[in-house]
Write a structure and sequence with these properties.
Largest sheet: none
Structural class: mainly alpha
Strand content: under 5%
C-alpha cells in the first residue's frame, strides 16, 4: 500500500467526516500505518491497495474518540 496515496486520501476523507468524532488525519494515518505494518510482518507481503470508498467506510466505523481524555488513539 502506497502511504503517499493513503495520506492524500485520508486528508481528503477527513473533510467529509463529522468533526466531533475526536479524530484528526494523523490519528487515522497512524491506525492505518500500524495495520499495514502488521500485515506485512505477519504475511511477508504488502497489503493490496484499498479503494477510497472502502477506506472511508473503515474510517466511519472507527469508534468515536473521547476528546476529554488525553490518551493517544
Amino acid at each position: 500500500m502506497k502511504m503517499t496515496n493513503m495520506e492524500k486520501a485520508v486528508t481528503w476523507a477527513v473533510k467529509d467526516l463529522n468533526e466531533s468524532r475526536g479524530w484528526i488525519a494523523e490519528d487515522y494515518l497512524d491506525v492505518f500505518g500500524q495495520f499495514f505494518e502488521a500485515y506485512r510482518y505477519f504475511t511477508g507481503r504488502e497489503h493490496p491497495d484499498i479503494s477510497y470508498f472502502a477506506m472511508l467506510r473503515l474510517m466511519e466505523r472507527m469508534p468515536w474518540a473521547d476528546t476529554g481524555e488525553k490518551v493517544p488513539l
